Amino acid sequence: MNASPSHRPHPAEWTETQSLLPSAERDLPAGRHQFHKEQMMARIHEDLRTPSRTSATSPVAPVKRSNPFLRRTILLPAAAFALAGAVAGGLALTDGGAHGGTTALATGPALTTRIGVADAKGAPQLLERISLAAADTSEPTPRKGQYIYIASKVADTYIAVDGDNRSEAVSTELHSRQVWKSLDGRDGWLIEAGETGDEGITLQSDTPDSGAYNALAELPTDPDALLQRIYRASDAVRDPEVPRDQAAFVAIGDLLSESYPPAEVGAALYKAAAKIPGVVAVNDAVDATGRHGIAIARENPVAGERTEWIFDKKTLRFLGERIVVVKATADSPLKVGTVTHTSAITERAVVDATKQVPGQAS
Question: What is the DSSP letter of 83?
């Protein structure tokens, strides 16, 4: 087992022969990140409704889905970034779910990158430009009965441990993810390579999803009022070791990444982010498909990681996000430059039915 992961610029260069590893939230039991996301959004709306339940109605075993909301930067301290349990004959990450068990892993080299230069003074101006671009959009307003469709590419990096207690950084293969969600979040569909099978699984809830389009449309568009709600919501679910400002920054990013907020709400979220201390502009960042852009970012000094929202340099369109190790810490063996999570939004649209892709008749 090689203890020194090789360098890779970005996942776009990965080969098709690498095996998939579990997604970045596997250090919590299945479903817990969905629970925390719903709790946060419920608090934002000051509506303590019961968290919605996501279930697979197709004959597929329960899937531990990658959740774009409330990543471990809010939920877990750096020390809890799971070191895997051992499995005879190979590597494994412990499942952590109610049924116990483990998932065998292949050992893809760690994903690494060059770290862009941060500029604290440039962040307010850049966020103002991004906010204006978000407000000036021609994207259609969804109608009742339609679905939000989002396609993306995602990958993650882990520390895995073998049966001899030797560890190394390993990464998932860059893989595709497609999500359909109704406007109230009560139903939808998920197809994720290596996670759900080719046909995907249904997403169903007995109650409206407070992270869906209708709920986002009800958020205040005043940046100060919006930020206060986000602070209250993230305070309720964040790990105490995660700094409060970092938790709020990540929460805003999670609302922007795999969602379809109305233009005025998206613009307000960027203006709210500009009010969080420690936010910086980054001159160069690369999304999961290799697209270079500029970024808005914030470092979690406890974890030594920087969360970056990546935008097209010309249009300022949101491309994706990544989390990069920018400082070595005693709690983590990951090297500076390691990318622990990367994503790229490849398509975002309104469609008439689940499993319908843009341009295809329903």
Answer: B
